[in-house]
From TrEMBL:
Transmembrane segments: 37-56, 62-82, 115-138, 197-218, 230-252, 276-296, 316-335, 372-391, 427-460, 481-504, 510-528, 561-581
Organism: Methylorubrum aminovorans
Identification of the protein by name: Amino acid permease
Classification of source organism: Bacteria, Pseudomonadati, Pseudomonadota, Alphaproteobacteria, Hyphomicrobiales
Keywords: Cell membrane, Membrane, Transmembrane, Transmembrane helix
Matches recorded under PANTHER family: AMINO ACID TRANSPORTER-RELATED (PTHR42770), INNER MEMBRANE TRANSPORT PROTEIN YBAT (PTHR42770:SF11)
């Protein structure tokens, strides 16, 4: 493919030495250390803003515990990903690509499923983040009008006596009369099955933000990492402040943390019981939290771009995990302490648009502080968007290089950026953005469907490590995780499946089935690449990465039937959890 041809592993430096930072034309370039990947992954903590209100609306006073448990699970699982990443110094694209290399020996269809599910789990961060950032910008330029607004009281004083209707209807009429047209304007809107679609003002603002992120990433990973280092500092430090200062000023409101029981019903503050319905809501919270808390595994998407992957891979994911461990436990705890369940289930917190205002009240700030926090929240969301585009585009790129996805995705520009994969991300997310900007129901439907893919990816990858240990025991490992940690990771893979089977329905009745259908879409995509474009053969580079010389050598399966039994057990657990846990 000319300059877009896939790099070969023969041309790359071996593990153990410091790689040449200047890559050949048409290749990803080795230009960053683990700190660069850390800063690219520093956008992950901002994902807490996506669902802090939604999780509280379904789990009540258990919300802080949901976030903590989920983050601890993600941290334990990361040691598995660090080991398998170390096996492939010449690959980009992250844990899904490394896990796919284990499964390909046993099924040509399961391996690309890992890559595909990881991509459609990560890529909606672009559209979801842009939709929330757009709502912040709209709120700043055209403040929303509600019943408590002074303008409503003034309007009612002038016009209320003329209206022959109830007080509630008069208030609704005042809000309608005072609301800025831009907030309700839309170029086009419709309904598509369980979701709505709208080309409204938030859509166009979000699209502009997405294009700005694309422009920064066009310069390659080094430019992206340098940019995100400064933005990350502007975001991470205030998140620490917001997590600590309210507790120092106001103390901990312990009444907002007890009793530790589920809600009686979603989005209602009344406490419930530890029955099947209560457990279903809790598992729904664990399901959606995983989409955020596990996300720092994106730090190992850049192994092919590390100067010294032997040292940088483990450090990147470990220190990114520590950052997330602190922020994902601290920020939700402080939110719950200050706002309580009633405050956290407010619509503006659930959809993310009122988070900045809530933060300003928590630290005791006025309009200036609120405006500053709005800007910081927008930067935080842009940071998460950049993290998602950098990671998901490299997953598409490596999937193409390895023969899973269409060839055109393996092109990179003169800066070493996978631009065709980035354009694919961009165009896909413009369509998703129109859904995410429509309403909160559509927003959480997208979130739930993408997380189904993320759980499938985690299940396959947490089990890929023991397959690699059996089939590639002879291959040196720069980092070798403790066996006990890997066993725990294998158990957690099934726990995650329970979260999906029981919890996806909490967010939308058809979310699970929509997620499985989206996952299955990889079958025709892979078949086109493998059987039409490649004539039923994988690229030679893939065999080298598997540490085998030929496709015949790849056919030796030392793990026997164990991988197949694992898949059958995973499907059984999914269906049983979906059947047993009901609202």
């Amino acid at each position: 493919m000319g300059s877009g041809a896939a790099p070969t592993s023969k041309s790359l430096p071996s593990y153990g030495g410091v790689a040449n930072p200047i890559g050949a034309e048409g290749e990803l370039q080795r230009t960053i250390s683990w700190t660069g990947a850390f800063w690219v992954a520093s956008g992950v903590p901002a994902l807490v803003l996506f669902s802090v209100g939604g999780i509280a609306g379904n789990t009540g006073k258990l919300a802080f515990l949901i976030w903590t448990l989920s983050m601890v699970m993600g941290f334990v699982q990361s040691f598995t990903y660090a080991e398998i990443a170390g096996l492939f110094p010449n690959k980009s694209g992250g844990a899904s690509v490394y896990g796919a290399a284990a499964w390909v020996r046993y099924s040509k269809l399961i391996a690309p499923l890992s890559v595909w599910c990881n991509w459609f789990a990560w890529t909606p961060v672009l559209s979801l983040g842009c939709s929330i950032a757009a709502s912040y910008i709209l709120n700043a330029l055209f403040p929303p009008v509600d019943a408590a607004s002074p303008a409503v009281a003034q309007w009612l004083a002038l016009h209320g006596a003329e209206l022959q209707m109830s007080d509630a209807d008069k208030t609704a009429a005042a809000i309608a009369a005072l609301s800025t047209g831009i907030r309700t304007w839309t170029l086009f809107q419709t309904t598509l099955g369980p979701v709505s679609l709208s080309l409204n003002a938030a859509f166009f603002i979000g699209a502009a933000l997405m294009l700005a992120v694309f422009a920064v990433q066009h310069r390659g990973i080094l430019g992206t990492a340098n940019f995100q280092k400064y933005v990350g500092l502007l975001v991470i430090i205030p998140m620490f402040i917001v997590g600590v200062v309210p507790l120092l000023i106001h103390g901990i409101n312990w009444q907002n943390f007890s009793p530790l029981v589920p809600l009686a019903a979603p989005n209602a503050a009344a406490p419930g019981e530890w029955n099947v319905a209560g457990w279903t809501l809790v598992l729904g919270g664990m399901f959606i939290a995983a989409w955020s808390t596990y996300g720092f595994e994106t730090a190992i998407c850049y192994t092919r771009e590390f100067r010294d992957p032997a040292r940088d891979t483990f450090k990147a994911i470990f220190y990114s995990g520590l950052l997330c461990l602190v922020l994902f436990t601290l920020v939700p705890f402080t939110f719950q302490s200050m706002l309580g369940v009633e405050g956290m289930i407010a619509p503006s917190i659930a959809d993310g648009s009122g988070v900045a205002a809530a933060l300003a009240r928590m630290v005791g700030g006025g309009p200036i502080v609120e405006s500053a926090l709005v800007m910081l929240m927008i930067l935080a969301l842009i940071l998460s968007i950049m993290t998602a585009m950098a990671g998901s585009s490299r997953t598409l790129y490596q999937g193409s290089v390895d023969g899973w996805l269409p060839r055109f995705l393996s092109h990179v520009n003169e800066h070493g950026a996978p631009t065709r994969a980035m354009w694919t991300d961009l165009l896909f997310n413009l369509a998703i953005l129109a859904i995410a900007c429509a309403d909160a129901t559509s927003f959480f439907f997208i979130l739930a469907v993408s997380n189904c893919g993320y759980i499938i990816f985690n299940f396959l990858n947490l089990n890929s490590v023991w397959i690699h240990r059996i089939d590639s025991a002879h291959v040196p490992r720069p980092y070798r995780a403790p066996t006990l940690v890997l066993v725990i990771g294998g158990v957690l893979s099934f726990v995650n499946v329970i979260f999906m089977g029981a919890g996806a329905k909490v967010w939308n009745p058809v979310a699970l089935w929509a997620g499985l259908a989206t996952a299955a879409f990889i079958i025709p995509v892979f078949c086109y690449r493998h059987y039409v474009q490649d004539g039923g053969r994988f690229p030679a580079e893939m065999f080298e990465d598997l540490h085998v010389g030929t496709e015949g050598a790849m056919a030796r399966r030392k793990a026997g039937a164990l991988p197949y039994l694992t898949l059958v057990a995973g499907v059984a657990v999914l269906l049983l959890a979906n059947w047993f846990f009901q609202l």
